[in-house]
Design goal:
Helix content: 40-55%
Low-confidence stretches: 228-263
Distance between the termini: 95 Å
Radius of gyration: 24 Å
Strand content: 5-15%
CATH architecture: 3-Layer(aba) Sandwich
Number of domains: 1
CATH topology: Glutaredoxin
Mean pLDDT: 83
Number of strands: 4
CATH superfamily: Glutaredoxin
CATH class: Alpha Beta
Order of helices and strands: EHEEEHHHHHH
Number of helices: 7
Largest sheet: 4 strands, mixed
Length: about 280
């Protein structure tokens, strides 16, 4: 039987969705993120040396990486899939297959790089740091966002919006492997890309995904899809609404954070009288 080693709030949610759509029985082993670092627990390295999620085991077979897992499941169970998934892996040599291949690679090869960078640069200014360093960190992160990250995220959003204005699914007229691979990226892009109203076709696509019964079952089993920039590095007591100040740890509600001690100015030494 398939076992999904599922890390909460991660890309492995799309693997659960695919299995639910296929109607394949599977076990799920849930891993919790470290509450301080928000990283995957070391237990995942016992399943695969990279220690990342998703990972699936099928008997003695271990498969890592979302795209590889989606292709493995399509090959393994595609023949018994419901009629609606008849195009899960499009026929080779067709335009649909070429589109499917492109979006399978684009999701992680291009799009997620910028979305992860945005998550990181959103969270850096919220981290504990010396009081005098904080304005510099904020200014630097804002400049990187303005000059590099935001333009690339906006380009990606516009690209996907234009494509989905012409097609109901990423590979064309049918649900394919590309939609499972792109699902997490679409959720992340809309959550971190600013004004959702600017991307109506992309938002409608996400709504179609979320309305599917199999998608909802996957959410019930795996939990929320996204990790916000507030929880990316902050612990439970250090949320966006109640951040640490100057690296002095979490504060109780209603209690002001202690001011960092500023260095005392040096007392000028008396000048020696000229000879």
């Amino acid at each position: 039987m398939i076992t999904v080693h599922h890390l909460e709030m991660s890309r492995s949610q799309r693997i659960l969705w695919l299995l639910e759509e296929l109607g394949v029985p599977y076990d799920i082993r849930l891993y919790r993120r470290d509450p301080a670092s928000r990283l995957a627990p070391v237990e995942l390295k016992r399943i695969h040396p990279l220690g990342k999620s998703p990972v699936v085991t099928d008997g003695d077979t271990v498969v890592a990486e979302s795209g590889a897992i989606i292709e493995y499941l399509a090959e393994r169970f595609g023949a018994q899939a419901p009629a609606e998934l008849a195009h899960l892996e499009p026929a080779r040599g067709t335009a649909e297959h070429r589109q499917c291949r492109f979006w399978m690679h684009y999701a992680e090869g291009s799009l997620m790089n910028w979305l992860v960078m945005k998550l990181v640069f959103d969270s850096i200014p919220r981290q504990p740091m010396p009081f005098l360093v904080r304005p510099v960190a904020r200014a630097l992160c804002a400049k990187v966002q303005q000059k590099l990250i935001t333009p690339n995220v906006q380009t990606a959003l516009a690209f996907m919006e234009a494509h989905l204005a012409q097609h109901p699914w990423f590979a064309g007229e049918h649900l394919t492997m590309a939609d499972f691979q792109m699902s997490f990226a679409v959720e992340a892009a809309l959550a971190r890309g600013g004004n959702e109203a600017a991307w109506p076709h992309l938002a409608a696509y996400r709504q179609r995904l979320q309305a599917r019964t199999a998608y909802q079952r996957a959410l019930q089993k795996g939990g929320p899809v996204l990790m916000s920039s507030c929880t990316a590095h902050d612990d439970k007591k250090n949320t966006c609404g109640q951040q640490r100040r100057g690296g002095y740890g979490p504060q109780r509600p209603g209690v002001a954070a202690p001011r960092p001690a500023l260095p005392r100015p040096r007392r000028a030494l008396p000048r020696a009288a000229p000879p």
